[in-house]
């Protein structure tokens, strides 16, 4: 605010310093107040837009952080004795994330979502990653984009929330319902990140002596990889870029399965765990490299 | 739904998206062509002999804007009306160019800054986002900044052509623009970069005005527009 006033003050000073220029403008039929007034209006318009953008970036960051925490929580499921409890907790966490997304939807009310897409896209991708990870743990299948979007339709719960919505944006007749759609590209990028989490889960589950999960995971990852290969480079650049990382993750999982099969015949189960826990460290070190 | 089915659906969506972009690109190319034609017409004003036919050149440029309107009308049919910003990048550049040309024509005609609303009328598009294909404020401002650098060039060339009063009027106009832009709190984006160039245009014109003043040439300007010193 103070910056705005400062700019205004400067403008006035400038005119005081150049009285000649001012007089000349009037003679030349350039009405200073018209240009001044329209730029005043532009100032307001640009500030409103930038403020909105910043608010969305902030929300997006919150969504990212909470989603990451959910993912970490879900990783604990491989070693935890009571998986249901963790799933419940993750559900609660995802609900708070959805509340944030609701705020995003409210912010975007009456706007073109794509105008601010760059601000919210990272958060949405992370959210897709968390949701699809939880969904996979629950059902061992891939969540569809329709399923995700179904959860992102919000209804007004109380009146307090309605007042938060800027009045000017309330052009929509169904102003009590907000919805946000994850774009196909955000969905794809989220799913591509999911594969990295699944790779981690695979390695750590072997470390815990779980022999079946790695095979299930490699099966599932292969399906996703096939899907991405089918899309190939028809999608935007970011999608093609993820394909490489995806291939690496898949290779790690496939190699783990190979080792399991080969060494599984000669080492007793409890010792296999040792073989893999040392292997996990190596893989994680590799991940740390730039 | 199986994983492969999901990916087939998604691939269909992506292909459809690319088809739309391809269509848009085609129209944008024709718009670029028209913009170049208008620019060629208007470049004539920089030549000494061109000063007399400014109205004629503007007239001709305005005829070309008829073509632009038709092209923009076909462009807006290429994508869903509520997804302007999804494809914005494709026409952003050419639209800024056209805004510049429109502001240039109006400046040559009336020596005033054309409002955003008037530009949208010339281009046959909407002023407000809610109504459909509109002119983004940043694109309008970018076009205006291009006008400033074109005018600084015109100031130099009008001195060469012996017109000593025009640079003084241009100087007043650009100063007005400059103080207008100073009001804006720009982010560190492309518009900000364009704005940073404005000070060089201001400087260039101030040099021209200085050269005229120090030689007393501005007093020779007979139409009384020059009031400097």
TrEMBL record, chain A:
Bilayer-crossing regions: none
UniProt protein name: Translin-associated protein X isoform X1
Gene that encodes the chain: TSNAX
Predominant location category: cytoplasm
Keyword Membrane: no
Assigned protein family: Belongs to the translin family.
Location(s), subcellular: Cytoplasm; Nucleus
PANTHER family associated with the record: TRANSLIN AND TRANSLIN ASSOCIATED PROTEIN X
Basic and acidic residues biased stretches: 16-29
Species this protein is from: Gekko japonicus
Organism lineage string: Eukaryota, Metazoa, Chordata, Craniata, Vertebrata
From TrEMBL, chain B:
Annotated signal peptide: none
InterPro entries named among the record's database cross-references: Translin, Translin_C, Translin_fam, Translin_N, Translin_sf
Keywords: Cytoplasm, DNA-binding, Nucleus, RNA-binding
Matching Gene3D superfamilies: Translin, domain 1, Translin, domain 2
Localization per record: Cytoplasm; Nucleus
PANTHER family reported for this sequence: TRANSLIN AND TRANSLIN ASSOCIATED PROTEIN X (PTHR10741)
UniProt subunit comment: Ring-shaped heterooctamer of six TSN and two TSNAX subunits, DNA/RNA binding occurs inside the ring.
Function of the protein: DNA-binding protein that specifically recognizes consensus sequences at the breakpoint junctions in chromosomal translocations, mostly involving immunoglobulin (Ig)/T-cell receptor gene segments. Seems to recognize single-stranded DNA ends generated by staggered breaks occurring at recombination hot spots.
Entry similarity comment: Belongs to the translin family.
Protein name in UniProt: Translin
The species this protein was found in: Gekko japonicus
Gene: TSN
């Amino acid at each position: 605010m103070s910056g705005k006033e400062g700019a205004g003050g400067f403008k006035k000073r400038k005119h005081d310093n150049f009285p000649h220029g001012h007089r000349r403008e009037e003679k030349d039929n350039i009405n200073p107040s018209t240009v001044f007034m329209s730029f005043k209006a532009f100032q307001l318009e640009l500030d409103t837009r930038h403020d909105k953008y910043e608010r969305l970036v902030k929300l997006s960051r919150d969504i990212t952080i909470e989603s990451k925490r959910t993912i970490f929580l879900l990783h604990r499921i491989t070693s935890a004795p009571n998986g249901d409890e963790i799933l419940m907790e993750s559900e609660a966490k995802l609900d708070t994330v959805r509340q944030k997304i609701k705020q995003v939807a409210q912010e975007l009310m009456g706007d073109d979502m794509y105008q601010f897409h760059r601000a919210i896209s990272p958060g949405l991708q992370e959210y897709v990653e968390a949701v699809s990870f939880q969904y996979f743990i629950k059902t061992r299948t891939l969540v569809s984009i329709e399923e995700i979007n179904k959860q992102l339709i919000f209804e007004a719960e109380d009146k307090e929330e309605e007042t938060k919505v800027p009045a000017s944006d309330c052009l929509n007749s169904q102003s009590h319902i907000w919805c946000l759609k994850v774009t196909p590209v955000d969905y794809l990028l989220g799913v591509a990140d999911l594969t990295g989490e699944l790779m981690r889960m695979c390695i750590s589950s072997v470390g815990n002596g779980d022999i079946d999960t790695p095979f299930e995971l490699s099966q599932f990852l292969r399906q996703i990889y096939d899907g991405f290969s089918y899309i190939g480079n028809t999608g935007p650049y970011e999608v093609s870029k993820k394909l490489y990382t995806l291939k690496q993750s898949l290779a790690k999982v496939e190699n783990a399965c190979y080792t399991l099969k080969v060494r599984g015949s000669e080492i007793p189960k409890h010792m296999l765990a040792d073989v893999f826990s040392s292997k996990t460290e190596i893989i994680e070190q590799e991940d740390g490299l730039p | 739904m199986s994983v492969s089915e999901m990916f087939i659906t998604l691939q269909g969506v992506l292909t459809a998206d690319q088809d739309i972009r391809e269509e848009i690109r085609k129209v944008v190319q024709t718009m670029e062509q028209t913009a170049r034609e208008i620019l060629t017409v208007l470049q004539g004003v920089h030549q000494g002999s061109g000063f007399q036919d400014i109205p004629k050149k503007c007239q001709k440029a305005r005829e070309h804007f008829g073509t632009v309107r038709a092209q923009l009308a076909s462009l807006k049919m290429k994508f869903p009306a509520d997804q302007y910003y999804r494809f914005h990048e494709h026409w952003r550049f050419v639209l800024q160019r056209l805004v510049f040309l429109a502001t240039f024509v109006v400046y040559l005609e009336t020596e005033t800054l054309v409002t955003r609303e008037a530009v949208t009328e010339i281009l046959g598009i909407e002023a407000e986002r809610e109504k459909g294909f509109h002119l983004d404020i940043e694109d309008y401002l970018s076009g205006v900044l291009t006008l400033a650098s074109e005018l600084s060039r015109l100031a130099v060339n009008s001195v060469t052509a012996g017109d000593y009063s025009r640079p003084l009027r241009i100087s007043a106009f650009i100063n007005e623009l400059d103080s207008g832009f100073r009001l804006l709190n720009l982010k560190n984006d492309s518009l900000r970069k364009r704005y940073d160039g404005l000070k060089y245009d201001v400087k260039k014109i101030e040099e021209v005005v200085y050269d005229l003043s120090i030689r007393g040439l501005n007093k020779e300007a007979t139409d009384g527009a020059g009031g400097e010193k």
